[in-house]
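SAMPLE LOG
Freezer: B-3
Tube label: C17
Construct: single chain, 228 aa
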Amino acid sequence: MRSSGDGRGKEKVKTRSKKSAIRDYIEAIVFALVIALIIKAFIVQTFKVDSGSMIPTLVAGDQILVNKFTYGTRVPFSDVKLFPVREPKRGEIVVFEYPNDRRIHYIKRLIGLPGDIIEIRDKLLYVNGEKYEVEGAHCDDSTIFPGIAGHRDNFEAVTVPADSYFMMGDNRDSSSDSRSWGYVGRSELVGNAVIIYWSWDISSGGFLGRIKNIRWSRLGDILSNSSK
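STRUCTURE (predicted):
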């Protein structure tokens, strides 16, 4: 009788130990998920580039890390931002919500700060009356269209409103940006792009095709936020 009782006791202990281990695993997973969600919501988020508007700085298939903490942490379900580290700077590569549909994210270079005067004359960009050049920015089409034909090559001088920013792609002739759809509001800024952590040719077709076309030379590239 004594021996039988000891065996049942050991079974119960073993069962409780298994349940405890399972609970520990579940708690660890939940904790990790919560931390990941907090990081994504307030600190760092990944984005995938799927257009050529920032060539050669960014190309389709680049995957980047964006620092969301720089311009302030957004209060969920509002446009209020708290604890900004600093103000946005001219020349930074910025991810933001497209003003005409905030469910969509764009990535461009910040050209105009609040109060800046922006003008384009025959493809040349001027900020506050002075020629402004960005490393990597280029125009591939030698044709120059007058302002009456659109804002790509000639853009009449405008003053950037308060709490707004003027954005342009580095691939100037193939970029939908502030020249065509206007300014980006402060509340629409998501963060500044920091580094390319992954890149492959998304036109290769299928997972195996992309694996064969990983752009190893781009991995770990720190994104330039400088002008010439």
